[in-house]
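Could you join me in thinking about how sequence relates to backbone shape in a protein? We need material for that, and I hope you will provide a protein of your own picking. Label the sequence line and the structure token line clearly, so we can match residues to local backbone shapes. Would you write everything just below, so we can both look at the same thing?
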Amino acid sequence: MRHAFTLLAVLAVAAPVSAQVTLPNGMVVPVDSMNGEIQLDAFFASRGEPIDWISDARNVPDTFSPLCDFTAALLLHEAGASLGVGWYNVVPGATAAPTASEIYQIVPPGAAVGTTITGATIRGDARYLGGDIGFALIRTPPHFTESRWNTVCNAGPCASSPGPWILSLSYLSPTMADAFYVAFEDGDTSSSAWNNDGDYNDFVFLFTGITCAGAGEPCTVPGAEGICANGLTECAAAGALTCRQVNPPGEEACDGADNDCDGAIDEGDGLCGAMEVCSRGRCVGRCQVEFGCADPADVCEDGLCIDAACAGLTCDAGLACEAGMCVSPCDGVVCPGDQVCRVGVCLDACVGVTCDAGQVCEGGVCVNACACRACGAGLECAGDGRCVDEGCGAVDCAAPTICRAGACVDPCTGAVCPRGQECTDGACVDVPTPDVDAGPPGGADAGAPGDDAGGAGMDGGRASSDAGPGGSLDSGCGCRATGSRRSGPLALLALGLAFILRRRRR
């Protein structure tokens, strides 16, 4: 997953205090035309929409990203003209408005109020180019939601503030997901004249299955901590993208995450068993002070073998002690593939995340499958519903290889695993240590327990805050985590002999 987890920029809007849209001639819209027609305030009230027709009026978003289940409905028509509405592809870098043949009709002219079109699946239309779309009231010339394609007023009342006429307003529905009301004026315009009353009730359509560009992507919730910082971008009434929190705070667990969203990771009692301690997101066994640690540079403190330079040093949450200094355990770590580093552990952020039907997990957050949303630049839609590198959508790589830029590559290439680990088969795993039960290599005389070399070899490595992920005490303190191979009476006897022989040498 290669999304940037940041809050996207707010879309620019004109923002008068009492209304949101000002035309080039200085007119502030929408207004009540007081001509006996149904005005937008009454229209929204009749639909139970808590929309303020003036303060919520926007001319953005003026382009949209089509999703699945697109529908279009004509809900208000307070004009004599019989016009249809269509969609068009937004072409980046275009210098001319879409032609009539590039506007694809949705609701035909003459349709009655209440007409709803449910079969116009834009994403499945062969004419859809894969990006954003705009809408246009089909007339000559068309009235576009993108005001840049409308007639420019640069004379008469617009001479001092020239610009294109704004002929549609967009209202985000607070009661329906992925739905916008788009309200058009249908009168003629010119470089100096505005032949409309400004109430925007001539044609009002409800489009569902659309969202503003950039919505539905993972983001970071400003000011939130831990798992509560995971969010999805969504449209806001003001025409901006906001970051909506998707995870509520939960019970803290030993998993390298701030589950209760209080800014501390893996804190509190009772996260592990009676003979275990939480270290770097895993419950590991405790060491015994009387047995010491295999590495002479380590000491046993609070149940863990740690660097003697770190003894007595307390680091802030999320930091670990290395050589007497508090550092982030993910500093310098480059996890393989799409894994992320959390508290010194490379992991798949989607492990344990369950998404609803039609959604997939990307970066630990459930998003719509790419068949129903747009993939970002340099990405394409794969059959499993996720956005992948261009050229990888139809590539099936044999495990553990992954697809990058259309080719299957080893995910360990370029990976830098946390300390005490190495990249194997696409994952950072603990560096194996010698098994004391197997006996020293080369026979009984090659290194008896209590030998300086043998004693160190027996527990080579560390199980501490500067050990590899999990801090498995197989690699450190003369003690072991659940599932260790060196278990049972023989291992305890070996430890006891090592301790006695060490005391004798003194």
